[in-house]
Amino acid sequence: RVHIVVKRVPRLQRPYFEPLTICDYQSRADLIDVNMASAHIPLFLDGRWTALMRGMRCVDGTLSLRSGSASRRVVLPEGARAVRLESALDERMRSRYRRREDFVRLASRDGVAEMMEWGMAHVRQMEGSGALVPLEPYLR
């Protein structure tokens, strides 16, 4: 199963970002909606503050109102194996994008291409180190 983390935005009953781990998908469209919500950076992708997912307003799973709180661990169901894909684990990305908000700066096509190239190189490095082994049952 694929577990995707989103954050439900603050509301009166719960005035903090509420992390939600989603792993039950009703359809392909639902899986896409959950993925899009998990990567939603307010105003950046579509000019909207939030993504609507399953009737809830959500944002990227790493966003937070408090500094340092994004580093808290997400608890997965018992026995679930995880693969952590995070740009901060790549040395080049970490040195270029020091602050959390740096990566959302407007970039040139060359900058985006470079970021994608670095991401692919990082995943190849993860594969070489065995970090992607939990995904092997899902290879086709």
Structure description:
- By secondary structure, the protein is an alpha+beta fold.
- Helices cover 27% and strands 13% of the residues.
- The protein is built from three helices and four strands.
- The protein has helices spanning 28-38, 91-96, 109-129; strands at 4-8, 18-22, 51-53, 56-60.
- The chain has a four-stranded antiparallel sheet with strand order 2-1-4-3, with helices on one face.
- The longest helix is centred in the C-terminal third of the chain and has 21 residues, at 109-129.
- It is globular, with a radius of gyration of 16 Å.
- The two termini are 15 Å apart.
- 11% of the residues are buried.
- The mean pLDDT is 77.
Summarize the structure.
The protein is an alpha+beta fold.
Which helices and strands appear, and what pairs or packs with what?
Blueprint: E1 4-8, E2 18-22, H1 28-38, E3 51-53, E4 56-60, H2 91-96, H3 109-129
Antiparallel strand pairs: 1-2, 1-4, 3-4
